């Protein structure tokens, strides 16, 4: 994460420490359902959920590049996509690395990063998570 002491764009979505980032979700203790973003209660059985780390790696399921004026001060063009998380049975919708907009391919491995990117609801700069192509071993 870069950006000093900037706030996250939303609380409870991710944790970042230096260059490491991980998504935060919830898990129902009764049915085992997992959610992102986290929920306080399971929508299936209304049980209170517990916070759970959803990890920081996934596989790109689909993506699109948006070439209209972006919201929240994001760079143009920007990419978004559905990502299947490696450590949990969830498919989530996320921002993709604006420096690799044209590089995304279905099935590619991704890693979560975060940095100062755009502005939050208050119009102030913020830290935002995004998936980027994972480095090959």
UniProtKB/TrEMBL annotation:
Signal peptide segment: none
Q: Which residues form a coiled coil?
A: none
Question: Could you tell me which residue ranges the ChsH2 C-terminal OB-fold domain spans?
Answer: 52-112
InterPro entries xrefs: ChsH2_C, ChsH2_Znr, NA-bd_OB-fold, Thioester_dehydratase-like
User: Which part of the chain is the ChsH2 rubredoxin-like zinc ribbon domain?
Assistant: 22-43
Q: Name one Pfam family in it.
A: zf-ChsH2
Cited Gene3D superfamilies: 6.10.30.10
Q: What is this protein called?
A: Zn-ribbon domain-containing OB-fold protein
**Organism, as annotated:** Sphingosinicella xenopeptidilytica
Lineage start: Bacteria, Pseudomonadati, Pseudomonadota, Alphaproteobacteria, Sphingomonadales
């Amino acid at each position: 994460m870069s950006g000093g002491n900037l706030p996250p764009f939303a609380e409870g979505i991710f944790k970042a420490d230096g260059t490491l980032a991980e998504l935060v979700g919830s898990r129902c203790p009764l049915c085992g359902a997992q959610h992102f973003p986290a929920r306080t209660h399971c929508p299936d059985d209304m049980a209170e959920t517990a916070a759970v780390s959803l990890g920081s790696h996934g596989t790109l399921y689909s993506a699109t590049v948006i070439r209209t004026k972006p919201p929240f001060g994001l760079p143009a063009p920007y990419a978004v996509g559905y990502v299947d998380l490696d450590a949990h049975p969830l498919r989530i919708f996320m921002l993709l690395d604006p420096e690799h907009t044209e590089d995304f391919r279905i099935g590619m491995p991704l890693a979560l990063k975060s940095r100062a990117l755009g502005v939050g609801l208050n119009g102030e700069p913020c830290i935002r998570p995004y998936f980027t192509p994972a480095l090959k071993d």
